[in-house]
Amino acid sequence: MISSARSAATVVREYSVSSIGIGLLGIVGAYALVFGGPLPLLVVELLVPGLIGSGLVWYGLRTRDRESGTQRADIVTASSVTCGAMVATFCAWSIYLLSVRVGFTGGFAQPVISALSTGMAFGGLLGHVYVEFAHHYRENERLSRAVDASMDGIAVIVDDQHVYVNDAYASLYGIRDATALEGTNWETLYTNAARTTIEREVLPALDDRNYWRGTLTGKRADGTTFPQDVTVSVLEYGSVVVARDVTEQRDREQRIQVLNRVLRHNLRNAVTVIQGHASLVGERDSILERRHVAPILEEIDDLMATADKARSIERTLDRNGTTDLVETTTVVRSVVDRARAAYPDARVVSQVDEQGSDATRPSVDGSVVDALDELVDNAIQHNRSNDDGPVSGAGDDPTVEVAVRTVASEAESRVEFTVTDDGNGIPDAERRAVLEGRETQLDHSSGLGLWLVNWIVQNAGGDLRFADRPDGGTVVTLSFPREHTVPSDPTPRASL
Predict the structure, then answer these.
(1) Listed residue (340, 298, 288, 356) closest to 492, CA to CA
(2) Whole-angstrom Cα distance, residue 135 to residue 143?
(3) First CA to last CA across the chain, in angstroms?
(4) DSSP-derived secondary structure for 284-327
(5) With 70 as the cut, is the pLDDT of residue 4 above it?
(6) Neighbours of 300 (CB within 10 A)
(7) Does the predicted TM-score (pTM) go above 0.70?
(8) Alpha helix locations (H) across 39-108?
(9) How many separate helices (H) and strands (E) can be counted in the chain?
(10) Per-residue pLDDT tens for 352-406?
(11) What backbone torsions phi and psi does residue 212 show, to the nearest 5 degrees?
(12) DSSP string for 203-230
């Protein structure tokens, strides 16, 4: 019962503005029925009240579904009714005084109705303006609190001057009071070299595309400098600067680079020494060479191969994003041709979508070639026929198929590359480690190849999937949104 009453009350409040408009139209209709008169005269007398009543009905229906619709209706209704009652009362009182003083005997109804409708319209307008201003004030207040609470430094720049900065922005430069920066030139917070970058790169980029992001060197109040990641976006009457101190990130990257370089250098030197001594031991004792030296040298070769793989991955990821778009059939052809040359004893086949003469073929980032090369290498090198030595025999040759197709759905169209092999399959632990992006003692990858594939696919905006073949082997799928196309050749092609 209580719930039904509350629901009914809510509905009444939502339609309150329309209700008073209907009420005003009812008063207009009652006046026309009671007092009557020629139609042209009634139209002149009741035109304004009728239009205002209709306007209130329309406004109430139009704003009912808006945010805070009930609160809006309450405010507009209260303001409209209050102003209407006040103006109607004032009008009636004025007519009464006029009748007392000068003996006015005209009708009260029509002037009062006109005054009532005018007052209601004015009150409704005041209520609407109040609600809109209150809404914008709350929005600005929430935005201001969010900006003030942001961990990133945020400043609004107009005519190269700070007009607003948050506390995080001021603290970047060692300034406690954020208002102290207001009115100062924002370029004075950077080094001379950074100012040159602003003049040569930032300002032209803002004129060209209304946006710039990069690294600049800031200058604190005590004269010290620090690197910062800066984003500048153009506003209607200025620009907004978002700055973040990246000193720790820069130091961490430098430490990693130094450690990486030292580790590689020392590792290669140590491995060279171990190889030399192990080879000498093997030459003097054939039993030791077979039982101990050969496994040592094999592990050393694997270790150096892993180091070379890591270096190759670093180079691949460093150039990611700078490669050109490559048409999908060209990608497959490049991967298959390289694999056939590198593994003459393996059977490498390809399959691509059939293309019509008037079609356009999709294209992907050129780094996808590296990912497919890695998958093909992994499929051939870890094939079950290679467990005991190189591939040999026509019946034991590993088979790898590289395919590409376009998959269309209601939501989007995607390009899918698949690498299918007939090997032992990829262990579930390795799949989970790569797909979840983390390794544990229970779930870890035995190498870097699948990580490289996953990183390339993610950077190119795609998805990576694994599936088992019913008769043995694995199907690895690289799926990308079909966002780019290149002109198609006039010759149809179904496979390579």
Answers:
(1) 356
(2) 12
(3) 74
(4) H-HHHIIIIIHHHHHHHHHHHHHHHHHHHHHHHHHSTTSSPEEE
(5) no
(6) 16
(7) no
(8) 39-62, 69-102
(9) 15, 13
(10) 876 544 456 788 888 888 889 989 988 888 775 554 444 433 346 788 999 998 8
(11) -150, 140
(12) HHHHHHHSEEEEEEEEE-TTS-EEEEEE
Amino acid at position 124, single letter:
G
Tokens of 346: 């393996």
Contacts of 290 (CB under 8 A, 6+ apart): none
Angle of helix 69-102 relative to helix 39-62, nearest 10 degrees, comes to 150
Q: What is the pLDDT of residues 363-372, one digit of tens each?
A: 888 888 888 9
- Three-class SS of residue 475? strand
- In the chain, what percentage of residues exceed pLDDT 90? 10
- Name which of 120-124, 194-198, 208-212, 430-434 the model is least confident about: 430-434
Tokens of 81: 């009714």
Q: How does residue 110 score in pLDDT terms, banded at 50, 70 and 90?
A: confident
What backbone phi and psi angles, to 5 degrees, belong to 425? Answer: 90, 165
User: Which amino acid does the sequence have at 46?
Assistant: L
Q: How far is 157 from 152, CA to CA, in rounded Å?
A: 16
CA angle, residues 276, 308, 264, in degrees to nearest 5: 65
The H or E element spanning position 487 is: strand 485-487
| Degrees, nearest 5: CA angle 452-460-365 | 100
The Cα-based distances of 152 to 181, 218, 238, 246, 360 in angstroms read: 16, 14, 19, 11, 44
Contacts of 325 (CB under 8 A, 6+ apart): 363, 364, 365, 366, 484, 486
Q: pLDDT for 206-230, tens place per residue?
A: 888 888 998 899 988 888 898 999 9
Token code pair at residue 437: 């992006």
Distance CA 349, CA 99 (A): 106
Q: Which residues, in sequence order, are CB contacts of 55 under 8 Å at separation 6+?
A: 21, 121
One-letter amino acid at 461 equals: G
The pairing of strands 474-481 and 413-421 is: antiparallel
Residue 431's contacts (CB-CB under 8 Å, 6 or more residues apart) are 466
- Distances from the Cα of 70 to the Cα of 27, 52, 136, angstroms: 25, 21, 17
User: Which residue type does 173 have?
Assistant: Y
- CA–CA distance, 59 with 132 (Å, rounded to integer): 14
Q: How far apart are CA 256 and CA 464, in angstroms?
A: 28
Q: Give pLDDT, residue 6.
A: 66
- Cβ atoms of residues 369 and 326 within 8 Å: yes
Rounded Cα distance between 284 and 29, Å, is 120
Q: How does pLDDT run across 276-329, given as a tens digit for each residue?
A: 877 877 777 777 777 777 888 888 777 777 777 677 666 666 665 556 788 888
Nearest C-alpha neighbor of 156 from the set 169, 145, 139, 172 = 169
